[in-house]
Design brief:
With about 270 residues, the chain is α+β, with helices and mostly antiparallel strands. Helices cover about 25% and strands about 35% of the residues. A hairpin with a 2-residue loop joins strand 5 and strand 6. The longest helix has 20 residues.
């Protein structure tokens, strides 16, 4: 069914606190951009923007996220943070989004789902989903977050853009069957709702622990990390409640990396 069928979406997501208001589009530039616009206009917590197609979908560092019509989920949720613990909530939601996608996808594919810091989702070495959490701030205060998630569902190998073949995958490619987009959307939003409640309740450490369980490369792996123009090498030592990856670079120095690009991680055999 087409995702822009708002009546069906509303019925399927009835009672979900992250779908209190649902805005749908057949085609849009970016669901995150629209959610951010609505947030600035004062929309409520739990405003959900979803589209059948994005023409300017993007991930971290402004990388393009291929978003063809009829094949994936492209959703963004406006989140109003609690009055206390704003920074902790924002960091926790970075983990919550990736965890929610991983837990949603796991029953649908035959291979293990793995998270890669900070929140990419891989199966059998293929990137299946990405997360982009953006904060709207006034001074040092976070006014709201936009949690954007893109998930490849029913693309065939021949549907993938040439530059991502062998890099990206979909549930259809991995499992050999099509996924029901409405069903996956419901699983994802209700799972995210549960983890958002943990984040809102101050459970950032619980989210970090769950992330580590789903991200084998986050602890005990030889790792290359690019931070700015510097390429760091070391051993990953886990993640912190504020969203950092710990990198042991030797000489008794463990650096918390909050912003960086994980270039490569060698898994233990």
């Amino acid at each position: 069914m087409p995702i822009p069928d708002r009546a069906a979406v509303e019925k399927h997501l009835g009672g979900c606190s992250l779908a209190r208001r649902i805005v749908t589009f057949e085609t849009i530039g970016s669901t995150n951009d629209e959610a951010r616009r609505l947030g600035r206009e004062g929309c409520s917590h739990g405003t959900l923007v979803l589209a059948d197609e994005q023409t300017r979908g993007r991930g971290r560092r402004q990388r393009r996220w291929d978003s063809p019509a009829g094949t994936g989920l492209y959703v963004s949720v406006v989140l109003r943070p609690p009055q206390h613990g704003l920074a902790a909530y924002a960091a926790a939601m970075q983990f919550a989004a990736g965890i929610s996608i991983a837990e949603t996808v796991a029953p649908l594919v035959p291979q293990p789902v793995e998270l890669v810091w900070p929140n990419d989702v891989f199966v059998a070495g293929l990137k299946l989903a990405g997360v982009l959490v953006e904060a709207e701030t006034t001074g040092d205060a976070v006014e709201f977050l936009v949690c954007g998630m893109g998930l490849n569902l029913n693309q065939r190998t021949e549907d993938l853009a040439p530059d991502v073949k062998g890099i990206a995958g979909s549930i259809r490619i991995l499992a050999g069957t099509e996924a029901d987009r409405l069903d996956v959307l419901g699983r994802l939003l209700f799972t995210l709702e549960s983890w958002e409640a943990v984040a809102r309740g101050g459970g950032a450490q619980a989210l970090a622990n769950r992330f580590e369980e789903l991200a084998p490369s986050s602890a005990g792996c030889r790792t290359e990390m690019r931070v700015g123009g510097e390429l760091l090498q070391g051993i990953s030592r886990g993640v912190t409640a504020d969203g950092a990856l710990l990198l042991d670079t030797g000489d008794d120095e463990v650096r918390p990396i909050l912003v960086g690009e994980l270039e490569r991680a060698w898994r233990k055999r």
